[in-house]
Amino acid sequence: MCSPGGAPPAPAPAGDLPPEWDTDDERMAFLFSAFKQSREVNSTEWDSKMAFWVGLVLARGRRRGAVRTCLRELQNGFERRGSVPLGLGTVLRELLRRGKLQRESDFMASVDSSWISWGVGVFILKPLKWTLSSVLGDSKIPEEEEVLIYVELLQEKAEEVYRLYQNSVLSSHPVVALSELQSLCASVCPDERTFYLLLLQLQKEKRVTILEQNGEKIVKFARGLHAKVSPMNDVDIGVYQLMQSEQLLSQKVESLSQEAEKCKEDARSACRAGKKQLALRCLKSKRRTERRIEELHSKLDAVQGILDRIYASQTDQMVFNAYQAGVGALKLSMKDVTVERAENLVDQIQELCDTQDEVAQTLAGVGINGLAETDTEELEKELDSLLQDSTKEPVDLPPVPQKVLSPPVSDAELEAELEKLTVCDGGVAQKAPSASSEPKTALGLSL
């Protein structure tokens, strides 16, 4: 029981162990010792030892890729110099409390009861018995052999199985034979028990449903990554039967084609050996085989035609559902919109736009000096006319003087003239020439 992966437990490779595994005997002696009864005695040491083994147990499960383990398998895997860790039981109980591990029996009991219809006896009856005995308080399972599941690893591998199916030719129809699916997932599932556990996880996530039909187990997958699988119905079973019929007919045609070719070769050999009757019998057998092949071809074409129509109807149904959802969304979005309200809204928008244009024109037509745009244009026209008139008529300027100005009179000449007037008149000067202020001052002083 305790070798859940099917192979005997092996010690962990040296590369997966911490550096102190082979170098620090004192440290490893502490780690291999049992946990204290209470964490409160020394919480620091308790937490340190727990963190060491929790990380090592989870890393071992991920490295091996096995979703199942047990206490005895881990003890054998972590054996060091003939000693096994004494506190692994406490570590596993802590991982169960954290939800990192789960008992296999509890996991299967949490899935819908439909798993009973397709499970195998070894896989179902013992865990069911263990679960019932645990509920009744009479558990006979040794702690060392109780199978535990790595929860996160199981979910990841189940997702990988789903992706393998989606990327394969089997995904052309949601229903597939369990045997074909198991062959497809052989690289992910090392054994049949792990394969069933992964299917149970997918069934728990509502991504597959499993049904046994005429002694054969068939699996139906959900369409889409986030869709939920619908229950198996008569259409699914009918399509699956048609697909099986197509496969059987194709195999039969291939077999008969090889048989017809063999009859042809036998007839040729008999003819070379001079056995004419034998050659004729071989040719007759070849013709009968070819007629059977033609009949099977016609049946195969009919089956394929029905499948094509079914696939087309499924596509039409999908498109119809999409259209229906679109119509519902469009109705909801146009709930409060009517033609009258739309026309009223457009009229209001046009009215506001016209008002805005008028305001903009009014603001743009006002200058700083208060003149309107029309007044400015009139002033510019008047200025242009004045400029044109000024270029046509010459300007009336005074004539240029022709008389040559005499040179200015000097002060000496003025004084000489003044003396002459004084001598001739014998008194006050009768006439004083226009001169500067200096001669007038001199005249005043002489008087």
Automatic annotation (TrEMBL):
<feature type="coiled-coil region">
    <location>
        <begin position="246"/>
        <end position="306"/>
    </location>
</feature>
<dbReference type="GO" id="GO:0006900">
    <property type="term" value="P:vesicle budding from membrane"/>
</dbReference>
<feature type="region of interest" description="Disordered">
    <location>
        <begin position="428"/>
        <end position="447"/>
    </location>
</feature>
<protein>
    <recommendedName>
        <fullName>Charged multivesicular body protein 7</fullName>
    </recommendedName>
</protein>
<keyword id="KW-0963">Cytoplasm</keyword>
<dbReference type="Pfam" id="PF25239">
    <property type="entry name" value="WHD_CHMP7"/>
</dbReference>
<dbReference type="GO" id="GO:0015031">
    <property type="term" value="P:protein transport"/>
</dbReference>
<dbReference type="GO" id="GO:0009898">
    <property type="term" value="C:cytoplasmic side of plasma membrane"/>
</dbReference>
<keyword id="KW-0653">Protein transport</keyword>
<dbReference type="Pfam" id="PF03357">
    <property type="entry name" value="Snf7"/>
</dbReference>
<dbReference type="GO" id="GO:0005635">
    <property type="term" value="C:nuclear envelope"/>
</dbReference>
<keyword id="KW-0175">Coiled coil</keyword>
<comment type="similarity">
    <text>Belongs to the SNF7 family.</text>
</comment>
<feature type="compositionally biased region" description="Pro residues">
    <location>
        <begin position="1"/>
        <end position="12"/>
    </location>
</feature>
<dbReference type="InterPro" id="IPR005024">
    <property type="entry name" value="Snf7_fam"/>
</dbReference>
<keyword id="KW-0813">Transport</keyword>
<keyword id="KW-0539">Nucleus</keyword>
<feature type="region of interest" description="Disordered">
    <location>
        <begin position="390"/>
        <end position="410"/>
    </location>
</feature>
<dbReference type="Pfam" id="PF25880">
    <property type="entry name" value="WHD_CHMP7_1st"/>
</dbReference>
<dbReference type="GO" id="GO:0000815">
    <property type="term" value="C:ESCRT III complex"/>
</dbReference>
<feature type="domain" description="CHMP7 winged helix">
    <location>
        <begin position="154"/>
        <end position="222"/>
    </location>
</feature>
<dbReference type="GO" id="GO:0032511">
    <property type="term" value="P:late endosome to vacuole transport via multivesicular body sorting pathway"/>
</dbReference>
<feature type="region of interest" description="Disordered">
    <location>
        <begin position="1"/>
        <end position="20"/>
    </location>
</feature>
<dbReference type="GO" id="GO:0005771">
    <property type="term" value="C:multivesicular body"/>
</dbReference>
<dbReference type="InterPro" id="IPR057471">
    <property type="entry name" value="CHMP7_WHD"/>
</dbReference>
